[in-house]
Design a protein that fits this description.
The complex is a heterodimer of chains A (about 325) and B (about 300). Chain A has 14 helices and no strands. With about 325 residues, chain A is mainly alpha-helical. The chains are: A mainly alpha (about 325), B mainly alpha (about 300).
Chain lengths: ~325, ~300
């Protein structure tokens, strides 16, 4: 004990330490040079913007008006009573709660099918992945056509199969518009989840399945007790990333419904766009962005805690 | 003895029967898998195939009921008219120009920064790196509004004075489309993870031979990073080509619109010009589709490695 204290190095004085760091910085100056373009853009478009939108959220800041007074917490207080913002939250949660799990299930099913010893695996994978690389605007346009009331493909086949008796107005019926947008998003995103799940499946050692077979486990038991737990990190990764992504959904909404009918597909991302770039109400929109940020952060922290409780290492 | 033989024969017969059943079940299982895969493939490609079919027909044939999956009187007329319509051909150039510019800049800047984080030791390295990582979870909406204001007040551009007042700055210009995307913290992170796996001994050997830091980066590390660079480059190109939101908020001149922006505005404004829209949609999809088909391996490995979109 005494010895360890005696042998501990005394801390050099502050000035000497600063000099040491400066000397090292001078010696490694090329490192800063290499970093400078990236760092400069990072400081401008990330660090500065994050701080500045926080600042904006406390102001009544409209581009079109010269006066930009400080309003304290007014913007945030307005959010609490803004009916349309509340509707946007409900719509966003609705969209996320359905599109994320459905896309993941579709991706997992496709990955499980493709993980069998089959021919033309590459071809199938390509076909399922094409919707993912198709520009979102194009996908939305195609589906807008598919959903058309009088001559749309979906109505035609549903009528022919006898599932509906008269054409449905998919995108103009307040109750159907959001499910229609969700279906399009599942179609566009399943291929991505499939590729990630496929990588996860291929990382599971074949021995585990062989050992379980010897022990007499049937294929459903093997899936439940080997595949599902070993895919848990992949599932969590997909779940967290997709949820963060779908909290911000915008493009499909803009092209297919423009937030309608009756505001039933107005998501937070769409409402924020309207406020910031149609009304140029930058202060209020910034407060909205921070509210969205808080939701994403809260969700992520909850997920992390859940993961730690379940001992899932990602 | 006879009873034992009989028992053996029975057991053998039982085994044969069981094996036959197993084969039948295996074949059925296989057939079921193919049937499901095929059904999935139809569902996933049908809307897409419909776009191609529709783009090859006259608008009156597109509205046929029942819908026809084989183009009636197929022609490339829509494509010709699409390219002739003002600005539509120009949009193709704009998308390509921005995608190539952003991808090239990112390949250079990202890899330069990634190399520095992976292979250099300097004061502040870990702090700066962590700061970049911590921005991953922040939704884009938080940075978009101030980014817009920064572009608007860029000094000496777009009619602005030295203080960034008076004009529109980098809004409504290629600068505004390209500059904010010239570096990606995600790209830096991915490349850095990859470069970390390159053994330091290689660099030390080159250092002893008197190679400069830039040569180490350009001639030792970069060639070994090619797979990661390819994956990142393809993703960046696809992302910029497909991006809709950023062009939507900063571009106002029709001549500067990118394809997704032009198409979306077209659809929202003219609800009836479906023939041109379908041709335009095919044109907008072709480059990224070709890129994907050509570099599928990089694509899939890139996603699998990193989960990047």
């Amino acid at each position: 004990m005494v010895q360890s204290i005696a042998t501990r190095q005394p801390r050099p004085p502050l000035r000497a330490r600063i000099r040491g760091v400066l000397r090292e910085m001078r010696k490694e100056w090329t490192a800063y040079l290499f970093l400078s373009p990236g760092l400069l853009l990072f400081l401008i478009f990330w660090v500065f913007t994050i701080a500045f939108s926080f600042y904006l959220s406390f102001h009544d800041w409209n581009i079109l008006e010269p006066a930009r007074p400080f309003v304290g917490l007014d913007n945030y207080r307005d959010l609490l009573t803004d009916r349309r913002f509340h509707q946007a939250i409900v719509n966003t949660v609705y969209y996320t709660a359905l599109s994320v799990p459905l896309t993941m299930v579709a991706g997992l099913v496709l990955a499980l099918l493709l993980n069998n010893p089959i021919k033309a695996r590459g071809l199938f994978r390509t076909l399922y992945y094409i919707p993912v690389i198709t520009p979102l605007v194009v996908s939305a346009i195609i589906w807008k056509w598919v959903y058309q009331g009088d001559y749309g493909l979906l109505n035609y086949y549903l009528l022919r199969l006898g599932l509906i008796s008269s054409p449905l107005r998919w995108l103009s019926d307040p109750n159907l518009a959001m499910p229609a947008v969700i279906l399009m998003s599942v179609w566009g995103g399943a291929g991505y989840d499939m590729v990630i799940y496929l990588a996860g499946l291929q990382a599971i050692p074949e021995d585990y399945y062989d050992a379980a077979k010897v022990d007499g486990a049937n294929s459903f038991q093997r899936f439940l007790h080997i595949t599902v737990p070993l895919l848990a990190p992949t599932t969590f990764f997909l779940f967290v990333m997709s949820t963060i992504g779908s909290f911000q959904v915008f493009t499909q909404i803009y092209v297919m419904t423009s937030g309608g009918p009756l505001g039933r597909t107005t998501t937070i991302g769409y409402r924020l766009y309207e406020k910031a770039f149609r009304h140029f109400d930058m202060g209020y929109a910034s407060a909205m962005a921070y509210a969205l940020f808080a939701m994403v952060l809260g969700f992520t922290l909850l997920q992390l805690r859940y993961m730690r409780q379940r001992d899932i290492v990602y | 003895m006879a009873a034992l033989d009989q028992g053996r024969a029975q057991a053998a017969a039982f085994r044969r029967e069981r094996d036959v059943w197993r084969t039948v079940v295996a074949v059925l299982q296989h057939l079921l898998i193919y049937a499901l895969l095929l059904a999935g493939a139809v569902l996933f490609t049908a809307p897409w195939a419909w776009m191609v079919v529709a783009s090859l027909q006259d608008v009156s044939d597109m509205f046929r009921w029942p819908p026809s999956w084989i183009p009636v009187n197929p022609s490339l007329d829509n494509y010709a008219r699409f390219l002739r319509t003002q600005h539509l051909g120009r949009m193709f150039f704009n998308s390509g120009y921005c995608a190539v510019a952003v991808t090239s800049l990112q390949l250079f800047f990202n890899s330069l920064a990634a190399y520095t984080f992976a292979k250099r030791r300097f004061p502040g390295r870990d702090f700066i790196f962590l700061m970049m990582l911590s921005t991953f979870m922040i939704p884009g909406q938080v940075t978009q509004i101030p980014s817009y204001l920064i572009l608007m007040h860029m000094p000496l551009f777009g009619g602005n004075n030295l203080l960034g007042q008076g004009g529109h700055g980098w809004l409504d210009s290629y600068w505004g489309l390209i500059a904010p995307g010239a570096v990606s913290t995600y790209g830096i992170f991915l490349l850095r993870q990859y470069m970390k796996t390159i053994p330091d001994e290689l660099l030390d050997a080159a250092r002893i031979d008197g190679a400069s830091e830039f040569r180490l980066y350009a001639q030792v590390v970069l060639p070994l990073t090619t797979p990661a660079l390819a994956a990142m480059g393809i993703f960046t190109f696809t992302y910029v080509w497909n991006d809709f939101f950023w062009p939507l908020i900063i571009i106002s001149s029709p001549s500067l619109r990118t394809l997704p922006l032009g198409l979306a505005l077209f659809v929202v404004a003219h609800r009836t010009v479906w023939d041109l829209v379908m041709a335009g949609s095919v044109v907008a999809t072709l480059p990224v589709l070709l890129l994907f088909l050509l570099f599928q391996r990089h694509f899939v490995r890139g996603i699998a490695l990193s989960g990047l979109r």
